[in-house]
Fold this sequence. Notes:
The complex is a heterodimer of chains A (204) and B (471).
Chain A: H1 2-17, H2 30-33, H3 44-54, E1 58-60, H4 63-73, E2 77-80, H5 85-88, E3 97-99, E4 112-116, E5 119-121, E6 126-130, E7 145-151, E8 155-156, H6 159-164, E9 171-175, E10 180-181, E11 189-190, E12 197-203
Parallel strand pairs in A: 1-12, 2-3, 2-4, 4-7, 5-8, 7-12
Antiparallel strand pairs in A: 5-6, 6-9, 10-11
Chain B: H1 15-39, H2 43-58, H3 61-74, E1 78-82, H4 85-99, E2 103-106, H5 110-114, H6 117-122, E3 127-130, H7 133-140, H8 157-166, H9 176-193, E4 196-199, E5 203-205, E6 211-215, H10 219-226, E7 229-235, E8 239-240, H11 245-258, E9 265-269, E10 283-289, H12 293-298, H13 312-316, H14 318-323, H15 334-344, H16 364-368, H17 375-388, H18 400-407, H19 409-415, H20 421-429, H21 449-461
Parallel strand pairs in B: 1-10, 2-3, 2-4, 4-7, 5-8, 7-10
Antiparallel strand pairs in B: 5-6, 6-9
The complex binds iron/sulfur cluster (SF4).
The site of iron/sulfur cluster has 14 residues of chain B, from helix 13.
Amino acid sequence: MPDDRDQILSRVRGALSQLPKRAAMPDYDGAVELARSRARPIDPVAEFAERLKAVNGEFVAGPAELAASLRGHGWTTGYCEPEVWPSLAPHFDGSFAVSTEFRRERLDDYQFGITRAVGAIAETGTIILSDGASGRRLASLAPWAHVSVIPRARLYLDIPQAIAALGSDPNSIWVTGPSKTADVEGILIEGVHGPGAEIALLLG
Amino acid sequence: MKTQPIDAFAEGMTAEMRAAVHEGSKIGHEKRTKLLFDHYANPNRLRQLAGEIKQHVVENLDTYLPALESRLVANGVRVHWASTAESACEAVHGILKARGARRLVKAKTMVSEEIELEKYLSDRGIESLETDLGEFIVQLDHDRPSHIIKPIMHKNRRQIADLFERHGLGPYDDEPAVITQRARQFLRHKYLEADACVTGANFMVAETGRMVIVTNEGNSRFCLAGTPCHIALVGIEKIVPADRDLGLFLNLLARSGTAQQLTVYNEFILGPRGAGQPDGPEEVHVVFVDNGRSDVLASECRDILRCIRCGACLNVCPVYRQASGHAYRGPYSGPVGAVLSPLMLGERFAEKADLPKASSLCGACNEVCPVDIPIPDLLLRLRDKAFALGIRSPGTPPMGAWAVLASHPVAWRAAMAGGAILNYLPTKLVPVRALRAWESSRDLPEWRGGAFRSWFKRHAKAPASGPNDHG
Lengths: 204, 471
Ligand code: SF4
């Protein structure tokens, strides 16, 4: 609607032309303004694990612990991205049925989905997924449990660092804990549309 | 247009519920304070900074809009412009028609409520389904949302369980976890069957063309994983200058809206899905919607365009709690709605001129606002405007007696004697479920009767009328 464009922009210009002066962009340093006051030196891994737990996520120390945790929850059928499966497979015994091919029409059959993350944010317990590096979007979203395999070198300390690393992938998403709602009488329920369990594993 | 009689919420309140409200509000208040003050040395500085940035954007929209447009186009996004609700609906319909799309999923977009998209499309044979749990329930019940981020604050679990049973989603069960599971099962296949999705956008970055969508449920992510075409309805004021500003705004939005450190899903979209990515939209459209915003920009109340729709001002507002969202007769309720809704009507301002009168001017909305909007000042300006236009009656129904009380300083002051009113009136009448939430920032404002009275005295004598009057 080219007419609408001209109309809107001319109305906007008209509205602003009455202003004697326009508000200037404040001069600030995002990283400094947002720096949290930290009483102690930060161990990023410990911080990440703690924050993840605080949002009801689960931190696992290694592939063996991951397999044990999934088995403990009774989640033995799932999908794993082909790129990460070789490093995990030795720890998953015959009680698991893991497929490395994700089928859209079998969405409800996967109890868990294991995908790569491009990184994580320590101060918030957030994992970062992207189109280019995290496999297909449905695999990290539709199964009840999502496991992200995070390269240790990409653990950002805080939000400003993670923003600076956004880059040019057409789609990135920050995920902080399981999907949740409090729409019904203000009661917290997890696993609304996305995973009811978010599990993170640092590798490398 | 549905309105909710004010007294309806008072029914069925037991002593036990009142106690829960009181306790819940205290916890909510403490939680928010802790989140804001624990983490940052000077949280107020963050609010002011965010306010300055948004004010700068609002006052330079004439350069930001075309700049953003060219970034979007360069990123492969198709840009549309809609000056009215009607033309926004037409734009969406045009996109869908070109693709032969019949089924649509929506992830909470206030703008689609504003332009009444669902009706427009259903008249043309296109089915659109809400996916946010609360919005889905509202849609099933042919109701309207009552809160900008908690749409079914006015419903209880028994009503929802009945509704689900009537619609064949399962036998009566009012356990919230069961209700949620049933919606999950029902909706996940709808995403995959849909031909397109419509979402809103929380922020649009002028520098990069990055669109940011924020949800807790993950419904917008499912829309963007399941459907091949994404249409974003974006108010023209949604811009932030640069990526780095997102740090500030995402922090403040989560903390102010739902007392979280970060909302669960923050999705950053530059364009259609990446090469080799099988899921998600191959086509991305942005529809810039004016629909009265340029009227707001031309008014003395343009500061309200800073709003990032966090909902905090609703949660603390004694009038909102008393009157319910429906009393505001539009998608935007509470203090922000009281300013925005009448102004967006342009020449039909008089139709909602009662809203700015229904305020106690207690100042709590300004104190919690993450972009520091001087809402009480704006409300006073609108009262002046109504007066100048010769619109006389204060809000009789639907804002009701509360509005009368709130707009009569003597009555209000009397009712406040002893500082008691905020301690008994709202808590007695607020729906209890609203205050039990994990994500609550709906603290009752710390009572500051003295501060309010002196503030009121200054303003009552010299009603704010100029842009520099920030009492
Ligand atoms: S006016 Fe401020 S507090 Fe109210 S919804 Fe908008 S940003 Fe939030």
